[in-house]
């Protein structure tokens, strides 16, 4: 069989560079999420530079610049699609979809897949009541308030006459509380506020907060380790609010560690209470006699199946000092990989451990 001979160069580039839009793609399921052809062409367009001569005249324009001379009259291409029907949606259908999506988001055991393909911006209003702008200049302009054309002759007061002023004074007298009056002279009991000890300032540095947000940003699944003796005291509501607003695509689960120090019925009750908000597991960290290790690994495998585009997922551990984060990691690895100490702050930096349990395979 004779191969056809083409004149000139072939238009297909066989290079495997990341800037080649015609590079061969990897098979599906291999874990390498390569850029598609449109993305590569767009990035190449950003890196383009126009060529100019020594006089500053453009010799070669960019690919997205027009080659038509300046002043040429532009015309819109006639197409029947300009007069075709557009895709619309009823307000009732949008409201129904918004209600169903809100119910799914509140359920900690249901995950929304492919959020980028859904009109998420149409489902919730980001304008808050306390952040909404008050258009004062629209109702009362600057010229009508100040200057020679001012129409307002007196300032806006809370009362209009003496009768309203007397009623307001009577109401203030009835609601007066001596405990809230800071102008009253109080007796000196001799107690003075001294400088705080340096130990109370531990854990508030920018470095520690940087390590915390570094773990949150680089992890697909966040495990918040709680102490079973005081779950609500070792729970960070600010981190949960931050992830709910800023990182809604990340998964957050609770691990109730040290459950061997409390009765079984107390552990069962706390798991039922916390499971209403996030998936919660009871755990006992130990290298020889652990509890909850298999359930946690199975849960991480289920999260791994949700990210089919990744070969493995990243799991981050956060929590208060001495709740057992390092002990949980040692239990999952079945060996000592993190130092454990009864003093707070033994593990000060973020560690990275490749784990075979987190691979997106049925192993």
From TrEMBL:
Keywords noted in UniProt: GTP-binding, Nucleotide-binding, Nucleus
Residue span, G domain: 315-352
Location of the Nucleolar GTP-binding protein 2 N-terminal domain: 45-176
UniProt-recorded Gene Ontology molecular function terms: GTP binding
Subcellular location field: Nucleus, Nucleolus
Pfam families: MMR_HSR1 (PF01926), NGP1NT (PF08153)
Gene Ontology CC annotation, any one: nucleolus
SUPFAM superfamilies registered for this protein in UniProt: P-loop containing nucleoside triphosphate hydrolases
Segments of skewed composition (Polar residues): 10-21
Domain of life assignment: Eukaryota
Chain intervals for the UniProt region annotation (Disordered): 1-38
Entry function: GTPase that associates with pre-60S ribosomal subunits in the nucleolus and is required for their nuclear export and maturation.
UniProt family annotation: Belongs to the TRAFAC class YlqF/YawG GTPase family. NOG2 subfamily.
PANTHER family in the cross-refs: GTP-BINDING PROTEIN-RELATED, NUCLEOLAR GTP-BINDING PROTEIN 2
The protein's name in its UniProt record: Nucleolar GTP-binding protein 2
Record organism: Coregonus suidteri
């Amino acid at each position: 069989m004779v191969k056809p001979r083409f004149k000139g160069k072939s238009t297909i580039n066989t290079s495997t560079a990341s800037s080649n839009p015609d590079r061969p793609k990897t098979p599906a399921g291999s874990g390498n999420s390569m850029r598609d052809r449109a993305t590569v062409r767009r990035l190449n367009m950003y890196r383009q530079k126009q060529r100019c001569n020594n006089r500053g005249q453009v010799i070669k324009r960019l690919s997205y610049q027009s080659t038509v001379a300046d002043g040429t009259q532009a015309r819109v291409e006639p197409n029947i699609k300009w007069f075709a029907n557009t895709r619309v949606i009823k307000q009732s259908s949008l409201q129904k979809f918004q209600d169903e999506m809100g119910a799914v988001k509140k359920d900690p055991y249901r995950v929304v897949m492919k959020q980028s393909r859904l009109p998420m911006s149409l489902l919730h209003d980001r304008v808050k009541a306390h952040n909404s702008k008050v258009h004062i200049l629209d109702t009362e302009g600057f010229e009508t308030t100040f200057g020679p054309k001012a129409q307002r002759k007196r300032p806006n007061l809370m009362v209009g006459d003496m009768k309203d002023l007397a009623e307001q004074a009577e109401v203030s007298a009835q609601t007066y509380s001596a405990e809230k009056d800071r102008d009253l002279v109080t007796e000196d009991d001799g107690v003075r506020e001294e400088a705080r000890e340096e130990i109370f300032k531990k854990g508030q540095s920018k470095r520690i907060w940087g390590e915390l947000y570094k773990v949150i940003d680089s992890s697909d699944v966040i495990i918040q380790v709680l102490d079973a003796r005081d779950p609500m005291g070792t729970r960070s509501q600010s981190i949960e609010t931050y992830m709910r607003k800023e990182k809604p695509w990340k998964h957050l689960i609770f691990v109730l560690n040290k459950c061997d120090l409390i009765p079984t019925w107390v552990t069962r009750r706390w798991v039922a209470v916390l499971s209403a908000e996030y998936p919660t597991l009871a755990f006992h960290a130990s290298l020889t006699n652990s509890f909850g290790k298999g359930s946690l690994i199975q849960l991480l495998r289920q999260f791994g199946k949700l990210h089919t585009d990744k070969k493995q997922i990243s799991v981050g551990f956060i929590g208060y000092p001495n709740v057992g984060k390092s002990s949980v990691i040692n239990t999952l690895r079945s060996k000592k990989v993190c130092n454990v100490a009864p003093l707070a702050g033994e593990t000060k930096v973020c560690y990275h451990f490749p784990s075979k349990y987190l691979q997106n395979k049925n192993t």
